[in-house]
Amino acid sequence: MSAPNDVKDVVREKYGQAARAVRSGSGGCCGSAPGADRCCDPITSNLYDAGQAGAIPGAALQASLGCGNPTALAELRPGETVLDLGSGGGIDVLLSARRVGPTGKAYGLDMTDDMLALAEENKRASGLANVEFLKGEIEHIPLPDDSVDVIISNCVINLSGDKDRVLREAFRVLKPGGRFAVSDVVVRGDVPPAIRRNMELWAGCIAGALSDTEYREKLAAAGFTAVDVEVTRVYGGEDARAFLTAEGVDANAIADEVDGKFVSAFVRATKPEACCAPGCCGR
């Protein structure tokens, strides 16, 4: 597996290209509503309903490269503070900001300058005042301890080469009783080495996918409790063939091997209300 810094370079470049394409009006179709142009892979398409799509700027929807819809599944309450890890063009931040209302706050964290610029444009177009986008890496969240009620993310944690650190950082910034509620790709069973070796697939959430067991273990090691992994979409052989072919992989050789092994999942966990002694809860 490639080094974490190599992974970051690939992710930064690919997501930067996506943001530039949307800003120039020359690309972007992922996350479209049913019936729209079907130019995207089965992981990123058809994630937001018409009501959600109509509540945000079109460019935010066009820049969506996620694998789920955490804002539809996460329980967000008025007045809460939400942090989106790897916020991209800002779609989930803007939807969250509407859910928590003017007394709440929605942060978006991203490391890609072009995505941050696009997110700021979408913020201005939305007219929302309770939104703030931060530049940084999800392995080093630029927020203080115990400052966030809910952490969401949309197919981004799999892009990190140091997932343990990401989960420890998520635990650190959550308030006691805070919730971890992310959409991510999860693998079930063995993954062909050809998938793991392909760097381009890191930027599509596939090569870095954890198994459901690994996800549970890593969350528990970070200090989380009440861990749950709920499958929201299963990718079959034909889904795999379409995605892998677009990424330049010999799909005929491995599509059947990955049939049903990759799923989108909603991953939930909770930071305990209080620790029993110094050094507990993953700190």
If you had to describe this structure to a student in words, what would you say it looks like?
The protein is built from eleven helices and eight strands. It has one domain: Vaccinia Virus protein VP39 (Rossmann fold, 3-Layer(aba) Sandwich). Strands 1, 2, 3, 4, 5, 6, 7 and 8 form an eight-stranded mixed sheet that branches. With 283 residues, the protein is an alpha/beta fold. Helix 8 links the parallel strand 5 and strand 6 (210-211). Helix 1 packs across helix 6 and helix 7 (163-173) crosses helix 9. The chain has helices spanning 4-24, 50-53, 58-62, 70-73, 91-100, 113-126, 163-173, 193-197, 212-222, 237-246, 251-254, and strands spanning 81-85, 105-110, 131-135, 148-154, 174-187, 210-211, 225-235, 262-270.
What is the averaged pLDDT score? 80
The H-and-E topology, N to C, reads as: HHHHEHEHEEHEHEHEHHE
Largest sheet: 8 strands, mixed
Tally of strands = 8
Radius of gyration: 18 Å
Short description:
With 283 residues, the chain is α/β, with parallel strands linked by helices. It has helices at 4-24, 50-53, 58-62, 70-73, 91-100, 113-126, 163-173, 193-197, 212-222, 237-246, 251-254, and strands at residues 81-85, 105-110, 131-135, 148-154, 174-187, 210-211, 225-235, 262-270. It has a single domain, classed as 3-Layer(aba) Sandwich (Rossmann fold).
